[in-house]
Structures are given as structure tokens and as C-alpha cells.
Design a protein that fits this description.
Radius of gyration: 14 Å
Strand content: under 5%
CATH superfamily: Nucleotidyltransferases  domain 2
Number of domains: 1
Number of helices: 5
Shape: globular
Largest sheet: none
Structural class: mainly alpha
Distance between the termini: 13 Å
């Protein structure tokens, strides 16, 4: 049952983004948290879409593979609206820096991540519906 599996990841993504939205009110204080929740929300949305399109794998630690697989699955369905893949790739490129770097996250960087995460989420929701993923 694909619907039950992908819904878990879609719901997780929505939860992460709700937390991101709540904390973005004060990015000076919660910049790391907001940014990381946005990135993880995007990862969960990518997993939901990939599972909904038939993938058996999750993003796990190799996020670049997940991005490539998402693009490949969209290409195989001749889905042209792939701007979300670009947002995902840019978000994932920042994950290690936000999680592990010694230098602080800047407010404008956190704002950009929050903005891209929201755009990716909107795209993922539209894409799931457009692809008629069962239960989306």
C-alpha cells in the first residue's frame, strides 16, 4: 500500500515545516532550528514523492542520490515542472553547514533556507496532486 507509506513522510514533512514556521518569528534566536527543520521537511517531502512514484528507497544519508532519483522519476513520467528539484539540491547543499559548521548561521541565510523550504513544500504538494499519486 503506497498511500500509507508515503503519507507518513508527507505528514512528517508538514510537521517539520510547521515547526519551522513557528520558529521563524525570531531567526536571530532560532536560525539553526528553523533552517534545519526546513531542510528536513524538504527531505521528507522528497521521500514522500519518491515513494509515491514507486521508489523503495529513502533519502537516508545520501541526499544527492535522492535528488537524482527524484529527477529521474519525474523525467520518466515526462513531468516538466521540475523547479522544486533545484530548491531541494540547494537546501541539501546547506545541510552539513547548518548542522556541523563552527561559524554561526546568518539571519539572511536562515531566511533564504526558510523561503526555499516553503517553495519546495508548495511544489511538492502541487506535484503530488498533478502526478495523481494515490492518496495525495
Amino acid at each position: 500500500m503506497i498511500a500509507g507509506r508515503f503519507e507518513h513522510y508527507r505528514n512528517r514533512a508538514r510537521d517539520f515545516l510547521d515547526g519551522m514556521t513557528f520558529l521563524q518569528e525570531d531567526l536571530e534566536v532560532f536560525g539553526y532550528s528553523s533552517a534545519l527543520l526546513g531542510i528536513h521537511g524538504a527531505i521528507s517531502y522528497a521521500d514522500a514523492l519518491r515513494i509515491g512514484m514507486g521508489s523503495k528507497r529513502l533519502s537516508s544519508d545520501n541526499h544527492s542520490e535522492a535528488t537524482s532519483e527524484l529527477k529521474s522519476l519525474l523525467d520518466s513520467r515526462r513531468f516538466e515542472q521540475q523547479q522544486g528539484v533545484k530548491h531541494l539540491k540547494l537546501l541539501l547543499a546547506r545541510k552539513s553547514r547548518i548542522s556541523y559548521a563552527a561559524e554561526p548561521v546568518r539571519k539572511n541565510e536562515a531566511e533564504d533556507i526558510v523561503k526555499r523550504a516553503r517553495r519546495f513544500a508548495d511544489w511538492a504538494e502541487e506535484t503530488g496532486k498533478a502526478l495523481k499519486i494515490e492518496g495525495w
